Amino acid sequence: MKLTEKQMRFADEYVKSGNISAAYKISYPNVKKDSAARSSGSRLLTKANVRQYIEERLEELTKESIAEQDEILQFLTSVMRGEYTEQIPV
């Protein structure tokens, strides 16, 4: 089942902040009370399609932030050969 635009925005905001209430208030600006945002956001997180989307986004972010083997080997090789010089911002 496809996500609505608001559900997708909620999921993206939740991935960014980890805060259910804040993510819900951004996605559904008519909701003002924290308690209502928290309970409605919690309900959204029980929906399989929303959960799946969040899991996929988190997996993508994890993959992007971890160096791959060839990147590590290239860096280590350049260090061993003296090609890498540390640059310290001043």
Question: Can you characterise this structure?
Answer:
- With about 90 residues, the protein is an all-alpha fold.
- The chain has one domain (about 5-80).
- The protein is about 70% helix and about 0% strand.
- It is built from 5 helices and no strands.
- It has helices spanning about 5-15, 20-25, 35-45, 50-65, 70-80.
- Helix 1 crosses helix 4.
- The protein is elongated, with a radius of gyration of 20 Å.
- The N and C termini lie far apart (about 50 Å).
- The model has no long low-confidence stretch (mean pLDDT about 90).
Topology:
Layout: H1 5-17, H2 20-27, H3 34-45, H4 48-65, H5 69-80
Helix pairs in contact: 1-2, 1-4, 2-3
Helix content: over 70%
Rg (C-alpha, Å) = 20 Å
- Main β-sheet, in a few words? none
Strand segment count: 0
Which consecutive residue ranges, at least 5 long each, have pLDDT under 50?
none
The average pLDDT score comes to 90
Task: Enumerate how many helices there are, as a single number.
Answer: 5
Shape: elongated
What structural class do helix, strand and pairing data support? mainly alpha
The secondary-structure element order is HHHHH
Strand content: under 5%
- Kindly report how far apart the N and C termini lie: 52 Å
Write a compact overview of the structure shown:
With 90 residues, this protein is mainly α. It contains 5 helices and no strands.
